[in-house]
Amino acid sequence: HPLSPSLSPPPQDQFDTIERHTQWGLDLVDKYVKFVKERTEIEQAYAKQLRNLVKKHIPKRNTREDPESKFCQYQAFLQVVKELNDFAGQREVVAENLMTRVCVELAKYTQELKQERKSNLQEGRRAQQQLENSFKQLENVSPRFNFPSIAPSSASPSVDPKP
To answer: What keywords were assigned to this record (predicted)?
Structure first.
C-alpha cells in the first residue's frame, strides 16, 4: 500500500538551492579579493611611477647653489614635486592597507566560511539521507499497521429484539 497523503514525504528541500547560493556568495568574495589584489598592484605601480617622476625633477644640487631657486615660480614647482612625493607615499599606504586589511582578512574569513559551509552541507546531506531512510522504513512497515476502514455506525446501538 502506498503511504497515505498524511504520511507522504515532504516536498523537496531547498538544499540544492542553498548550496548553489552559498557557493555563489563564496565565488563573489573570491572575485572581490582578486579585484582588490589587482587594484593593490595598480596602486603600487602608480606609487612607484610617481616616485620615479619625483626623482627626475628634484634638483640634484643644493637649491641654495642653484640660481633659479630664487624665483617664486621655481619654489612653487619644487613644492608641487614634494607634494607629488607625498601623494606617492599615500598611494603606497593605500596599497599596503588594501593588502593587509582587505585581502588578507577576507581570505581568512573566506576560509572560515568555506569550512563552515562544508561542515553544514555534510550535516545537511546526512540529515537528508536519514530522512529518506526513515520514509523508506515507514513505507516498509506501514502495511503491517494499516487497519481496515471502519464504516460509520448508526447513532444508537442496535438492540437484538430477542431476549
So the answer is: Coiled coil, Lipid-binding
CB 148 within 8 A of CB 33: no
Which triple of cell numbers denotes residue 61? 644640487
User: Look-up: residue for cell 619625483?
Assistant: 54
Question: Could you list the residue range(s) of the whole structural domain that residue 60 is in?
Answer: 16-139
Within the chain, what is the greatest distance between any pair of CA atoms? 144
Q: What is the pLDDT of residues 8-34, one digit of tens each?
A: 555 567 888 999 999 999 999 999 999
DSSP 48-60: HHHHHHHHHHS-S
| CATH number assigned to the domain comprising residue 84 | 1.20.1270.60
**104: helix, strand or coil:** helix
- Enumerate residues 6+ apart whose C-beta is below 8 A from 54: 81, 82, 84, 85, 88
Look at the chain and report how many structural domains it folds into.
1
Q: Is residue 93 part of a domain?
A: yes
Residue 118 placed within a domain: yes
C-alpha cell at 22: 552559498
User: How far is the C-alpha of 52 from the C-alpha of 83, rounded, in Å?
Assistant: 14
From the number of C-beta atoms within 10 Å of its C-beta (0-12, 13-18, 19+), residue 106 rates as middle
pTM of the model: 0.66
